[in-house]
Write a structure and sequence with these properties.
Length: about 170
Amino acid sequence: MTKWLSNFAPFDELTTPKQFHDLGKLTHGFIIFWAYASFSQFLIMWSANLPEETTWYVARTHGGWGKIAVAMAILQFAFPLMLLLSRATKKSGQRLAMLAALILVMRLVDAVWLVEPTYSHGHFAFNWMDLVAPLAIGGLWTGTFAWQLQKRPLVPFNDPQLEQALVAAHGH
């Protein structure tokens, strides 16, 4: 959203590579946190060796589910982590926006992986509602967000510390 808004006034004068670098560092931290939380949950359930818990993970490692798990590990953790180690990636709004879109798509895949029941004897079965429901809810949220965004100023013009913040952001 910040990259898109940086194409329009007044954000075009306010956004700098430093802000994108900070957003990249924040994204990097959230990726590491997601991996830590997911692996911790897996490790606790697997170590407890409770049949009602471990059978869920066993079913998620066979058939198409295992391929989805590997794709999530690569596309939601390893690939973004490696890209965000570069300062050039973190300072580029375009690269950061594309990476954020990939992470959002993979979060959707992760939600499906966690919630979808294991039909078809442990194999992944795709239903048209698996695609339509998130798109409908996401479209509704995006429309509401855009509608509310038009009603409010994006820059706090009456903030007494705005000028000081802009000077600090631009390094003057």
